Amino acid sequence: MTTLLIIIYVTFISLGLPDAVLGSSWPRMYMDLNSSIASAGLVAMIICGGTIISSLFSARLINRWGTAHVTIVSVLLTAIALGGIAFVPNFIWLCLLAVPLGLGAGAVDSALNNFVALHYNAKHMNWLHCFWGIGATSGPLLMALFLMKDNGWRTGYLVIGVLQIILVLVLFITLPMWKRAKITTGRSEVKAEVKISVLLKIKGAKSALVGFFCFCAIEMTAGLWGSTYLVLYKDISVVTAAKWVSFFYIGVTVGRFIAGLISVRVSNINMIRGGQFLIIVGATLMVIPLTDQFQLMGFIILGLGCAPIYPSMLHETPHRFGKEISQGIMGIQMATAYIGSTFVPPLVGYATNRVGFGIFPIVILGFVVLMMLSTENINRILRRRKDTALAGS
């Protein structure tokens, strides 16, 4: 189990590697591909579309092939896509390769999150997502090593693709370990294939989806528009704003490491509540007209607040809805999360363009309040279910 856990940690790093590479390489890529700088948005939308689709169908795939095989094929798809991007002659081919990149990312993300939720405790879920952050940070740094040369982005994509191929080989060699993990814990992955329409009718399912949607809306909105808010609304320099927003991501990464340490004593429910409280504190510091340093504190606290929520909600899924259907629920949760991260930030950008960037922290507060209402509704449902079970016994 320990060796398998190490492999899963490495896989989470590889999940994060491609996520920020497009943004860091695009200023050079679009010129070489004779495309417009705005067309990166279309590529990102195609990737997110593939991710949403594969997340929705992840339960069916895993029910038939198992987590290990789905993970191997998914990583292979991303490896082929990333390696293929290194040789694309034009923008059309880049869009075509964005399809398998998105499909592979969504399936493996959903599969591994549910596997860890079933077989490992909460600290590993937090630390795994901390390792995803390491991968997301390493991708642009790795790409930066090659961008100084002509067509260096091609070499960068090729190297990342090769790293993914190596991971595929490691996963293939360790296939027997995944089976032993199921035998050791006695927990199966998916016992019944349930239609999405049926899953949505389960008490608390829709509230769970609202929670995931709101969280990803908060995280992506803060990351995308935080710097612009500081520059345009708070009149802070571009360089300072960029540095301060980086503390948001540092807060998320460090916060998830700390969350892993304290999750032994603190329940997932209280981790979620604590994170929501910190988000409210961080956003409130941005609203109050105090010194600029309070804006920095706001971003740090906002990052720390975001840190435990997503891993804790993922880890709580089998407890909320049962191990038998957790993969089905996990798939639609991940899909809803991607919808939030894909569509909310552009809408917020449109709204700020019309109203002004002063609404940025207000939007954060609005989404966290909605998230709190949805998660507390699930908690009420769980308490009633527990009381009913106790009364029946």
Automatic annotation (TrEMBL):
It is a multi-pass membrane protein. Keywords: Membrane, Transmembrane, Transmembrane helix, Transport. GO terms for molecular function: transmembrane transporter activity. InterPro entries: MFS, MFS_dom, MFS_trans_sf, MFS_Transporter. The chain crosses the membrane at residues 33-53, 65-85, 91-115, 127-148, 154-178, 209-232, 244-264, 271-288, 294-313, 325-343, 355-375. It holds the Pfam family MFS_1. GO terms for cellular component: plasma membrane. It is found in: Cell membrane. Residues 4-386 form the Major facilitator superfamily (MFS) profile domain. Belongs to the major facilitator superfamily. This is MFS transporter.
